[in-house]
Amino acid sequence: MTRFDQHLVADRGQPAHAIELIAPAAFDAWLGAQPARTRAMLAAHRFTGKPGTHAIVPGDGEAWSVVAVTDDVGGPWSLAALPAALPGGTYRASDRGGELGWLLGQYRFDRYRKAEDVEPRILVTADAATLPETLRLAEATAWVRDLVNTPACDCGPADLEAATEALAKRHNAHVVVRRGDELEQGYPMIHAVGKAAARDRAPRLIELHWGDPQAPRIAFVGKGVCFDTGGLDIKPSAGMRLMKKDMGGAAHALALADLVMAARLPVRLHLLIPAVENAIAGDAFRPGDILRTRAGLTVENTNTDAEGRLVLGDALTRAGEEKPELVLDFATLTGAARVALGPDLPPLFTDDEALAADLIAAGTVQSDPVWRLPLWDAYDEMLKSDVADLVNAPDGGFAGAITAALFLRRFAPADSAWAHLDVFAWRPGAKPGRPKGGDAYALRAAYAVLKKRYAAGASGVPERSHT
């Protein structure tokens, strides 16, 4: 797991280069107050205060500082572009709030190439009390990125199991795993989707339990399709290219569980990851097959490339058996969600008005937005089957993200607050602090809601320290 301890430290008055953050509207006034030599130097470099730009400004002797113009003064991404542009050293910003972006601006995925020998860029922060939390948020985000960026050859079902075991060891949690043919009776949809994979990539349901059994129960479910060929309804090569990221929901659920346990929120946490590879072989499930489910419903499989909702259905049923008061599921579920809202804005589906309001508000505050789409009851009829209780993918393709969420609702516990987040888990173009590749969406928003609902308390689990 990526660590950021060396990049953010408490401010103890140590020497540091100043970073002055300026909003575009304030640049002219700032420039007018500078010494003539500074104005001349900036003019020579054609520095005009365009948002997203910075300049190094000389001081007395060998001293120098940084001026950065940003539309996000006080926001999490205000400093994100600077670590890649500034020389190594220690810095102190004029405004708080950009610490997370400073850290994530130094994220690198270098597992498969020689790591750059880069001198660390260190930010000193006066927010010493929030420093551990900022580090945890950055590291959780980086863990999502690492997992999603890792190709399927090194991130299969067994690797997700190992990641969960390592997480459990860090927090004194308990893991239960059901694998292969053991799933056929109790979790038939997970088994059906994953049974064509090679033996060492057999399907499994990974469950983690943590916290006081008497505490409020919450559950996270993450789609763990480690690679998706589309099954017998095979994807074209262009559609298969990024399918290493189809376990992005599992990555989000793991990272959120890490945040909850590290903060010692007084909850009984149940993490569920149905981990499969949707492969093609002689025993692959077929279009037209009728699948049984843990919930007792039957599903006519109309599209083997609509497999994520199948494995989530059995996992959501299992989550409901523990009677949680809150269930969150994360999944890279539909292309329709991307057509509707693009890569940056994950749709939120829930029938719980309070939960919807909390997630939307937290997304705004955390600069981690979600957009609510309806669980439109009238579209339930699209899930009707002539031969089973429902289909997994309606004909026609209308409202694809909504019908997928409606399918999941059939398996979500009726007495629990439930929200489904259809995340992309991938950033197709780089932004400051957010490189192209795997990324976390709605993670900080969900964590903020959980912190608000469940005040931190003693659960007997030691918090991972940062020094």
UniProtKB/TrEMBL annotation:
Pfam families recorded: Peptidase_M17 (PF00883), Peptidase_M17_N_1 (PF21337)
Entry keyword set: Aminopeptidase, Hydrolase, Manganese, Protease
Keyword Manganese: yes
Organism per entry: Sphingomonas longa
Family statement: Belongs to the peptidase M17 family.
Entry-linked PROSITE patterns: CYTOSOL_AP
GO molecular function terms listed in the Swiss-Prot or TrEMBL record: aminopeptidase activity
Keyword Manganese: yes
Protein name as catalogued: Leucyl aminopeptidase family protein
Record domain Cytosol aminopeptidase: where: 303-310
